[in-house]
Structure formats: structure tokens, C-alpha cells
Amino acid sequence: MANDPVYRVETQGTLVRHPFAYRDFRYYWTARICAMLAHSGLVVALGWAVYDEARLSMGVRGAALRLGLIGLVQFLPMLMLSPFTGLAADRFDRRNVVRLALVGQLSCAAILSLMAFGPGAGLYTLYAIAACFAASRAFYMPAMNALPPALVPRATLPQAIAISAVAGRIGGILGPVLGGFAYAVGAKWAFGLCATLLLAGLLLHLAIRPLQQQTPMTAARPLQQMLEGLRYVMSNRLLLGAISLDLFAVLLGGVTALLPIFARDVLHVGPDGLGQLRAASSVGALATAVWLSWRPLSREVGVKMLACVALFGAMTVGFGLSRSMPLSLACLALMGAVDMVSVYIRQSLLQIATPDDKRGRVGAISSLFVAGSNELGEMESGLVASLIGPVGAVITGGIAAILVAGLWAGLFPELRQARRFDQVQPD
Known about the structure:
Elements: E1 8-11, E2 14-17, H1 23-91, H2 94-115, H3 123-145, H4 148-151, H5 157-185, H6 187-206, H7 222-235, H8 237-253, H9 259-266, H10 271-294, H11 301-321, H12 325-352, H13 359-388, H14 390-411, H15 413-417
């Protein structure tokens, strides 16, 4: 790496190399953007396709439940595969696990693109492809999230996590916008764009050089190895509190699944408006991630995470009450900003407090919790919206997220007591 440019930043009085000084991290970072662009664009296109298909025969509330089912069919593969995905990330070369997972996602996007040239796919076909895509992401996420510690030194890791979040949020901003505009032209263009981006991400990952050898796993049987990660999380109350806080807050307070309804029937905008709504939270998250990559958090990280979850709930309530597109976009952007702080703290704690030989399995548990909050949250939102309407579902969910932040502050004092990342050590 002698030929790499050297960037330096000051963290708590110590000069360390910037993550971009490392060649393979730059490939990793760019590949992450491509994958997130594809994923975010595909979510918008798939959601609109399902809503269009269901609304014609079932009305708004019936279509809301069908939108929620997208979350369920994506969560179930992750739930069933989670023990194996973490084990794969710890046992095999994490680069190859990521590459094969990208091949799976690319295949799903390509099939959707080809099907869009025909008369259209039914709901069950769309659900089946969504499940296959989720199965590929189940292997992708733990291995992808466990790569940075092998690409940069420990002192650079919190900043590398923040910069990785920047890549994810760039994809989260541009992906929905590109997906929405592309879908307005034609479904085949939206799905074809996603397939192209996934191919680019795969080629970038193929350019990453062999990693330093992973810490060897224990010689236990595969079932015992799978359980090791779960036992570690359950015994480490700091990690358990941080991961479960995100699960319940987003599970109850998420609005993503209902955005097609708000776009069409509450705010009265089209597919391009849906793309803007999907991108708004990522705009706030990106601005926050850029700030964190320049000025990493160093004090009272646990209290700040709890406060941000409460603010996330308050902004969710504001979005539910809004009937103005600019105000709705502002609420979503603020939701993304405070959620980014929470994610940054959680991911930093996860990587720093977990030994290398368990990072894949612990990461798989974290990914499962994230999937539970996102995909099951979509199911919960769709179900509640079918009973009390989309506005009522969003407002009650935001209030619930605020209550979760207060409850977790009492149940997990370890979160309130977490001061600095450099004081956290693997057990």
C-alpha cells in the first residue's frame, strides 16, 4: 500500500490514516454504493408493481396489506438462513461470500427485468422473487459488514464505518429517485438498471485482493458454532441492548412500506414523488454520515443513541400528521439524520466489541434484527394500516418508538453508561 495516497484525520488527539488511504477499502466503498443503489431502486420498483397489481382489485386498504406482505416474504428467508449466513461469513473467505450473494441478487433483478417485457407478473411471482432476493442479501449483509476490520486498522474503524454509511446513504438517496423515474418510463428499465448496478458491484468486489487470514474458528461442531454467536450477544448486554433497541423502534415506527399509499392517496404525487419520499430520509442520513466521518462521536455515545431513537419517533408522528409534501420530506430527512447516528453507534459497538472469529455470526444476528425491524416492520405497518388507516398506523408507530427509547434506557443501563468507543473491548 506504499503507493496509496495518505490522508490523515485527527481523532481524539491522535493522527490516523483516513480509510480512503487503503486501496481495497476504496473498492469496497464504491461497490457498496452500487449495491445500495440497486437495492433501493429495486425496493421502489417492486413496491410500486405490487401496489399497482393489488390496488386494482382490492382497494387501498387491501393493497396496504399486500404491500406489507413484501416485508414478510423477505424476512422469512433471513430468519431461516440466519444461522448459516453468519457461519459462512466466519468459516469462508468473506470476499467470496459477498460475491456469490451479489450473483444471486443480480439473477433476481435480471429475471424481473425480463418478465417486465411480457404481460406482467402476478403477485405470487413478485413475492417469490422478493424472497429469493432477500435470501441472497441474508448472506451478503453479515459478510459485507464484517469486511472493514480486515481492510483498515482498528484505530480507523469507527471512521470507516461512518464512511461506509455514507456509501449506503448515497445509494439510499439516488436509488429510490432513479428507480422511481425509471419505473415511470417502464418497469423493465427500473429492474434492468438494478441488474446493471449489481453487476458493477460484483466486478468491484472481484478486484479486492486476498484478505489477512481470518481468526480461526473454534473446533466445535457446526451447530455449536452457530450458537456461539447467539450466546455471545445474549451475554453481552451492551450489544443486546443496542441491537434490540433498533429492532423494536423501527419495527413499530417505520413508515417505508406505506410510502406508496402516502405518495398516491395522501400527498397525491406519482412514482417520481414516491422516489423523492424514499430518498428523503437518506438525504438526512447522508448529511449526518458525512459529518460523522469528519467529526466522529467521542463522548456519551449510548445516551446519544437513546435520544436519537426518541427523536426518530417524534419525527414519525410529524410525518403522519403532515399533508404538505415539503413538510413530509423534511420529517423524513430528520428521521434519517437521527437514525444515522443510532446506526453509526450501533455498528461501531458491534465491530469493536466482537472478536474477529465471531464477527460473521454476530453480524448475522444483527442483520436478522435489522431485517426484523425493516421487513417485519413493513408487515406490521401494512396490517395496522388495513385496520385503522395509513395515517393512524404511522402516528401510533411513532409514539411507540418514543416509548421504546424510554423503556430501553431503564432495561439496559449499559447503554446509558457507554461513554467512548475506545473504552469498549471484546469480552
